[in-house]
């Protein structure tokens, strides 16, 4: 909606356009002084009111702009606060992530250290067991070697004794062989004499016994 001042100005312009030009002129016109003055008077009267209304509008506009600026500032402040909070949370999350990674790395290092220590202990135990077993086997080997040596010597001695006995027996038999042969011959002859009533020797034996 246009203001009254703007309407009066338009009426003045229309009035001027409707006026006739002076004879022999294209720039000067003939006006009704009273009608034009009336329009100008009303314009003067309306001007303060319009100025006040515009001042009010301007004031309201300033208030609106100030309110909008305040809201914008508050929004900016809230946004900045949220951004700072998000950044803080991001930093906290990053720190938590770094701490978690550090904890995981420490746990992995400790686990690897435990595994290495256990492996070293197992290797030491294995080497100790191998060394102990080797010592036991070495002692057993010494004992068996000594036993075999002693047994071999005793066996050889025993065999030698048996061989000596065997040789003695055979020698004795060899020495007895002629006498055994002679005795066998005599026994055979005696058997022949006993086929009658006895031999002279047997009679003499019986006489002697009487």
Count of separate DSSP helical elements: 3
Distance between the termini: 202 Å
Strand content: under 5%
> Helical content, roughly?
over 70%
Number of strands: 2
Largest sheet: 2 strands, antiparallel
How are helices and strands ordered from N to C?
Answer: HEEHH
Unreliable stretches, pLDDT < 50, 5 or more residues? 196-201, 203-210
- What is the overall silhouette? rod-shaped
Would you tell me the overall average pLDDT?
Answer: 76
**C-alpha-based Rg, rounded:** 78 Å
The main sheet orders its strands as 1-2
Please state the structural category: mainly alpha
Region (Disordered): 176-210
Biased composition (Acidic residues): 201-210
Protein name: ATPase
Coiled coil: 90-121
Description:
With 210 residues, the protein is mostly helical. The chain has helices at residues 4-18, 33-193, 200-209; strands at 20-21, 29-30. The protein has a domain at 4-89. The protein is built from 3 helices and 2 strands. Strand 1 and strand 2 (29-30) form a beta hairpin. Helix 1 crosses helix 2 (33-193). The longest helix is centred in the middle third of the chain and has 161 residues, at 33-193. It is rod-shaped, with a radius of gyration of 78 Å. It starts with a helix and ends with a helix. The relative contact order is 0.03. Residues 201-210 have a biased composition (Acidic residues). This is ATPase. It comes from Blautia liquoris.
């Amino acid at each position: 909606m246009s203001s009254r001042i703007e309407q009066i100005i338009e009426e003045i312009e229309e009035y001027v356009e409707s006026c006739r030009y002076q004879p022999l002129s294209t720039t000067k016109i003939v006006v009704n002084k009273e009608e034009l003055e009336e329009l100008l008077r009303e314009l003067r009267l309306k001007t303060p009111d319009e100025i006040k209304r515009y001042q009010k509008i301007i004031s309201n506009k300033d208030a609106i702009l100030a309110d909008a600026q305040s809201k914008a500032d508050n929004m900016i402040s809230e946004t900045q606060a949220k951004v700072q909070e998000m950044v803080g949370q991001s930093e906290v999350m990053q720190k938590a992530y770094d701490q978690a990674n550090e904890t995981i790395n420490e746990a992995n290092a400790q686990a690897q250290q435990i595994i290495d220590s256990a492996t070293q202990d197992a290797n030491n135990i294995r080497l100790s067991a191998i060394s102990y077993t080797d010592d036991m086997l070495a002692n057993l080997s010494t004992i068996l070697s000594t036993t075999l040596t002693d047994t071999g010597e005793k066996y050889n001695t025993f065999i030698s004794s048996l061989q000596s006995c065997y040789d003695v027996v055979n020698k004795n038999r060899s020495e007895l062989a002629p006498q055994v042969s002679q005795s066998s011959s005599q026994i055979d002859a005696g058997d022949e004499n006993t086929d009658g009533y006895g031999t002279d020797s047997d009679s003499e034996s019986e006489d002697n016994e009487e």
